[in-house]
Amino acid sequence: MAATNYDVLIIGSGASGGMAAYTLTKKGIKCLMLDAGPPVDVQNNQVSKPAWELPYRGLGNPARLPHVVQANEYNANQWVDEKQVPYTHDPNSPFNWVRVRYVGGKSLFWSRMSFRLSDYEFKAKDYDGFGDNWPISLADLAPYYDQVEPIFRVRGRKEGLKQLPDGNFIEDTTSWSPAVQKFIGEASKRNIAVTKMRSSLGRGQLASSLNLLLPDALATGNLTIIPDAVVRDITVDKNTGRVNGANFLDRHSSREMHAKAKVVVLGASCLESTRILLNSGIANSSGALGHYLHDQFYITQCVQAVMPEVRDKTAPAGYASGGGYIPRFRNLQTKEKDFLRGYAFDFSAGSTPDAKFFPLYGKALDDALEAHRGTGFSGTCMGSVLPRFENHARINKDVTDAWGIPVLHIQARYGSNEFNMAKDAINTMAELCRACGWEVLARHDQPLPPGYSIHEVGTCRMGDSPKTSVLNKWNQSWDIKNLFVVDGSSFVTAGSQNPTMTILSLSMRASEYLAEQMRKNEL
Amino acid sequence: MRRRRFIQALAAAPAAPALLAQQPAPAPAPEAPEAAPLDFSIADEGADPVSKFFSARQFATLKRLCDLLMPAAPGSPGALEARVPEFMDFLIGDAPVQRQQLWLSGLDGLEYQSQTRFRKAFADTDATQADTLLAPLRQPWSFEPPNDPGARLLAAAKQDVRTATFNSFERNMAASGGKRPRGGGGLYWLPVE
């Protein structure tokens, strides 16, 4: 049986690849999707286990996933095996590249925080002069956010904030607990807005490409999915200079195959898409491919406070519970001296602080923990990272993965803008807690290593000029018009908002454009 | 001869279903009782761990440290009853060199401090003496690991020993009123092939 020549080859099945398939197949376009990982059945791939049944008592195999801070013994099998698919970095400049290789990709496990970018990000250069603007504005992407949010069933509350545009939400009607109301009161005195979390409810257990996008795409009869297909490179027709498919290896047997298509859509995640393009030697006349790598710096538990009014169970039930989100408030109306752009927090009230925060041990520690049950207030800081040319990924030809494919060498560092921003963030959060009368047990102003947020973006950025960007405003390669890159690598600047809603919306927008171009026979 | 019989049997085979169809249906066989589900144990229930990473002296120091960090309470086994020292010997033996070094030098440092200050092994210190040596644990928490290797070990041990005790079979057994604990815990993601 001769292989079909598909209209579109989609590489990757996560949020971006899944949305491309969802959009294109509904328009009657025949798509072939390749994913490097196996299909999963989330119901049956998880079992309930007490920690004492695990080989490492829940502490995890200490040598298995050195870069995945999120890994524990329960979820260790979710992540890409770093021995099978290694990458390199300077030992003094770590990058935590956290990967998932299953059909559905990282959308199987994401935090579900669902935000829009604003024109403070799309037109960031207009506000502070740094870097480049996106070639699109919020008005260009808003119609796609409007469609994506109902698919993912985003719950939120409309707040009318320019820096965190409202969406097409399922209205969040929950109330704030008294402790959080106290916090909001102190924040508002400082012109800091606090919002309800905006989160994708999804359906059933998941808010994933696997259950929200791929089933509809398959139902059209226009999608073929091949799992366990590890793409090595994209192939080019020497006569036309257009891409015509991809070479891939079977994950189990390493058997080499070639898939043909008229158009190639890359949605393999920011750094994997970049790796495939670099290994293919295409789409880089600008020299920007692999550069401008950035993410959001994270500081988890940046401030850990306790609420004395809750100690020894003195507060009424429900006094301290719930959480919220503080969108960016710096460099909006005023300008900070020490840093550009801004940061956000999420916070929660009513947990019990971890034992490590108490300067005690033994029975005294147990007694303190009992007294502080439910007294905790903690925040996580998520800060904008400036996209800089020097932060980049390149191919390391000396190291290959289990399929003989050269790996990435990643070189990324945070600079003074990020470190100064982090200090301001933690000072602000600590001040808010103290203003509430809460005791700050611990504070931390050093960002975790780049990559920790799993929000890496920017390495195939879009732009207005083929001299400085890899893609045009339609996520289309400037160099090869039948090649599209629809994942987070296309970002120009990430802001402090989680990127998934923007990735989904960009992919939908690019796919609609692609479909229209195919209809007009212009690809 | 054998070959001929085999061929005859093959030739007769297609007729067999037709013949069976003319027989009265056999009475349904009585239903076999369901086999009881098999109950498996974990290694800690039926065997003793073999310690091999720490030296005898380091292991003695570790045992004393575990007992101080997570002492037993009525109805609640401590780190020693939960065989945490033996577990830590396994865990750290499997760890990257840097983490191994932290524990090896940290335990040696604790022993040295004890010998220097009290002229006795850390394993033999009384509660007051041991508390003096564990002074770094009374410092406010900092996200930056302490510079002193001994203080770094104590911070790491406080977390690991606590978790290993809470997650032990023995502790969970006690919490279940002495019965073998069942169910509970978190969702474990199985390997996918």
What does it look like?
The complex is a heterodimer of chains A (523) and B (193). Chain A is of the alpha/beta class. Chain A has one domain: FAD/NAD(P)-binding domain (3-Layer(bba) Sandwich), CATH 3.50.50. Chain A is 23% helix and 21% strand. Chain A contains 11 helices and 19 strands. In chain A, the strands form 4 sheets. In chain A, strands 1, 2, 8, 9, 10, 11 and 19 form a 7-stranded mixed beta sheet that branches. In chain A, a hairpin with a 5-residue loop joins strand 16 (392-400) and strand 17 (406-411). In chain A, helix 1 runs parallel beside helix 11 (500-519) and helix 4 (138-152) packs across helix 11 (500-519). The longest helix of chain A has 20 residues, at 416-435. The model of chain A has no long low-confidence stretch (mean pLDDT 96). Chain B is mostly helical and 193 residues long. The model of chain B is unreliable at 1-22 (pLDDT under 50). Chain B is elongated and about 90 Å long. The longest helix of chain B is centred in the middle third of the chain and has 22 residues, at 97-118. Chain B has helices spanning 2-12, 16-21, 43-46, 56-69, 84-93, 97-118, 127-133, 149-166, 169-175, and one strand at 186-189. In chain B, helix 5 crosses helix 8 (149-166) and helix 6 (97-118) crosses helix 8.
